TrEMBL record:
It comes from the Bacteria. InterPro entries: UCP030820. This is DUF934 domain-containing protein. Pfam families: DUF934 (PF06073).
Length: 146
């Protein structure tokens, strides 16, 4: 069973994450946890000193964490971006596409199911933060940049 999954090189960050409020009020934390409903843009002035951003998913149907991930990655965040909480195996590929590179689900995931989810589709159809080339761009490279 998979209790923690990482797609990063090297060791996962082990520093305990503080709340966004605590992070913006102190100068030495390098790990922060975004709860549902908190605005990831509050972290944008501090991206250079963050090594870990945990995004909490309180329920599998709460998609606000996807937006937080995309905001952070599109703003240049290069550190570890970890999805925590109610993370289901069928969400991992979509979360990866938004920029998550590690996962700590509330309930362990089946190894075989994770492998199937990650390798199910060879091609993708939409552009995303993960840098994979959509199938339409492979067919029409002249349209990638307009």
């Amino acid at each position: 069973m998979v209790e923690f999954l990482s797609f990063r090189d090297g060791e996962a960050t082990q520093e305990p994450a503080v709340t966004v409020e605590a992070f913006t009020g102190q100068s030495n934390a390098t790990a922060v946890r975004i709860e549902a409903g908190e605005d990831a843009r509050a972290l944008l002035p501090h991206l250079d000193r963050l090594s870990l951003v945990e995004v909490h998913f309180p329920a599998f149907g709460d998609g606000r964490g996807y937006s937080a991930a995309r905001i952070l990655r599109e703003s240049g965040y290069q550190g570890e971006l970890r999805a925590v909480g109610d993370v289901l195996v069928d969400q991992i590929m979509a979360m990866r596409r938004c920029g998550f590179d590690s996962f700590h689900p509330a309930k362990p995931l089946d190894d075989a199911a994770v492998d199937r989810a990650l390798h199910r589709y060879a091609d993708i159809y939409q552009k995303a933060i993960d840098g994979r080339q959509p199938v339409w761009a492979k067919r029409h490279p002249e349209k990638i940049y307009g």
